[in-house]
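Hello, quick one for you while I still have it in my head. My current little project is about how a certain protein chain folds up. You're getting the sequence in one-letter code plus the fold written as tokens. Would you mind checking whether the tokens look sensible for this chain? Here's the protein in full, and shout if anything looks odd to you:
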Amino acid sequence: MTVEFAVLGSVEARVDGRIVDLGHARQRCVLAVLLVDANQVVSVDGLVDRVWADRPPQRVRNTLYGYLSRLRQALAIAEGADIVRRSGGYVLDVEARAVDLHLFRDVAARARAAVRNEQDEQAATLFGQALDLWRGNAFAGLDTPWINALRDAVDQERLAAELDHTDVRLRCGHHTGLLAELSARVEIHPLDERLAGQFILALYRCGRPADALNRYQQIRLLLAEELGCDPGLPLRQLHQQILTTDPALNVRAAVPADGRAPGSAPALVPRPLPMPPPVRTPRGGADLLGPPTPQRPRRGSQLVGRAAELTVLDGAIEDALAGAPGVVEVVGEPGIGKTRLLGELGERARQRGFVFLAGRSVEFDRAPYGAFVDALDDHLGHEDFLRLRHDGVPPGAFALLSTVFPALCDRFPTGPEPVRVERYWFHRAVRTLLETLSADGGLVLGLDDLQWADDGTAELIDHLVRHPPRTPLLLALAYRPRQAPPRLAAALARAGTEGRAARVELGPLSPAEGAELCGARTDHWRFQRLYEASGGNPFYLEALARSAGNESPPAVAADAVPVAGELPQSVRAALLEELGGLSATARVCTQAAAVLGDSFEAGMVAVVARTGEAQALAAVDEVAERDLVRQVGSTGQFRFRHPLVRAAV
């Protein structure tokens, strides 16, 4: 009688198609541990640790031996499966392909080999067979730290196979049948750039280029909010190819030896992630955030908290509808949710009939008027310029605008250099353009990361605040106040004093809001530790919560800075990006400060960094200008902006 074991769903055993009674959940957990390491010896201590963690019953070994005995009896009728005592532990002797987890891995490996051999149709069939083995969540009904960590790792294997399967199906021209499936999957994995690229390409090939471009903007905004970064190069290239209607995006039949069709999905979106490493047995035994909570899709469909801030934004929209152009500032430290709030403002504005255009400044790209170009240029590329001229934009204004906006430079003769010669006239031309674009139903212009704004952007904002357009227009400006350029800060401070601008200052989430964001209980010790480590910063909190399944959250005691390796990768990458612009001396001094403790003085930094005190003071000034450290009152003491910043350093 042949036996089949299943763990990609509930843990089951079937003999000639009939289900075998495997007993209660703890006993099935023992079998699951042996199945994962089929044909390998698992020590008794390893079995105990994986099944009970740090909560073993009294006489745990006797209990384990009883479970193993009953499992042997249940499987006695099967051929080719036997639990055997070996030196050091127990082993389940079984044909590996009789266990659906190992069969899934084997078939997926064969599918990838078919891709390398240019056999896409065969690869599609094999990937489909591998994914059909899944019946639900792996190890359903079992709940131990080791099982939960293993479930997450196996889910990553499933996701990688799904992405590879989609790549092959796109190469084979199956984009029409993929749309609904991809639409559902991007809701579950909104930050996966490879998946986003697949969906965008499928939309484009189905004759929906506008939807494809809109989806790109959504992922761009979401990555900026959640991870503080731009889309990767492959996704940006795909976006540019769609804008230029690149023929390479069409389905190609030929596939080169590396398994990628020229211009097809895998050539335009990131390649598969490497297979997850072997799962380490978690220690600690406790559930992480309380009872299991279904993972919510993170696409920004629900904004947690921020009720007072949304009231201000709604009021600004209403004022703009009433014909009073306005300015709203959204300020706060990194990760606090400025970009997310701008996105929410855009959605609410669209519902009221506004056009919402978003742009951002980039730290190391100080091209003149960069944020305005980012927000307006793509839109201008699709505008009817005859209509714009008819609606009041004179040809001379287009000549000025074409010196800055690439979408106009091929259509209109270049005028004088506005940055040096005609700045005031250029400002007026932009205001006229905005009046025309907002004349029909209103315009919300969201400009993000203005702490990196170039001088031209700051001057233009100042002009638009002092000389507001005469149409329904709302300027929404997001930035880190401690790093704002002096020109921009002065202009907005003056606008606030004159009542021309509303200001929204984002602070930490409350414990109740943080618990809602994480799907946790406020009274659970693990959540309380996560909240303390994050300081209520939603980006840090959510990243820590996602990583808490495999390791404890970083400690934040002043005398015990966490190790960088303990930080979630997304947090570490975002924080290290902030350090990237420092001089070599400032980096060394910042590292010296990080080991000194929760607070430090420049003199001690000089000692640890082995540099002069004057150099250390200059370095601390440089780091403070980037808001990585802050002065403690009027003392000579400094501390890092956030404990996790110190941890990353």
